[in-house]
Amino acid sequence: MSEPVDLVAEIEMLGAKLAAARASINRRFIGQERVVELVLASLLSGGHALLVGLPGLGKTMLVETLSTVMGLSSSRIQFTPDLMPADILGSEVLETATDGSRAFRFLEGPVFCQLLMADEINRASPRTQSALLQAMQEREVTVAGVHHPLGRPFHVLATQNPIEQEGTYPLPEAQLDRFLVQIDVDYPDRATEREILLATTGAEEGAAVAVFTPEELIAAQALVRRMPVGERVVEAILDLVRACRPGEPEAAGIARDALAWGPGPRAAQALMLTVRARALIEGRLAPSVEDVLALARPVLSHRMALNFAARARGETVSAVIARVAAEVSGLAEAAE
């Protein structure tokens, strides 16, 4: 009987610590509670996040603030069209010792950190973008046939400008699938922008303070995986993901009509982890179906694509997800 009691106590303690982390982040990143919640959920789930938005919305500052609050060593890479894979991963150099002997030595690139900021990731060529694939999935890189493990924990927070801007390359589908969530960073409303003006243009700015250590974050990630998930939530995740696959018998009508391809099993895994993390962030002991619906768009939107006819009609992936989620929600309510 002690294990459930201990688990509840651990969840409550972590919830209090996360509340302090959110307060510290919000002192610098003002008025974007939804964005902060999704980024924290991504870190708690052990995943990577893709921040999509126009320049000047605070994406870079958010990542810098997170590295401080979560106690993680960080690196920043500014992606440009001439960036090469070795600029990210590192390279081997030939060194001559004092005795005249020569040997290759590996010089680590900026990917060897705990929190990597990939700034404007879609400005680099697909070849360079793909250099992150192994690091994001396997937490190691291979250079000249030698495997080099990365730091623990390891997270990538990438920023992306909208594709319609000049000089950008669409991210490959395989790389998009490695991002746990896609987070849309929108313009602030008038009241929030006023608060930002007053807070950031004075003599002093709000400072973030460290709340977590790397070891505490790793422990929190393990605790997320121990959180109980009800059968109803599991079924809602399966219903939602499978309803978004146009080739499945359970596919929703809008999915068959509008989608070229849908999310794979990794999307269901991502939902299973992030709903637990969201519940924990909000101080609850277990996730609900409402968590599944709230996370449908950030988890699924980058894992599916519209077909030609849907694009011609002006459909959007977000609208398709909303309709599928509403249908799944209706079925869940009818089953009760």
UniProtKB/TrEMBL annotation:
InterPro entries: AAA+_ATPase, ATPase_AAA-3, CbbQ/NirQ/NorQ/GpvN, ChlI/MoxR_AAA_lid, P-loop_NTPase. Signal peptide: none annotated. Residues 45-189 form the AAA+ ATPase domain. It holds the Pfam family AAA_lid_2. GO terms for molecular function: ATP binding; ATP hydrolysis activity. Keywords: ATP-binding, Nucleotide-binding. Belongs to the MoxR family. This is AAA family ATPase.
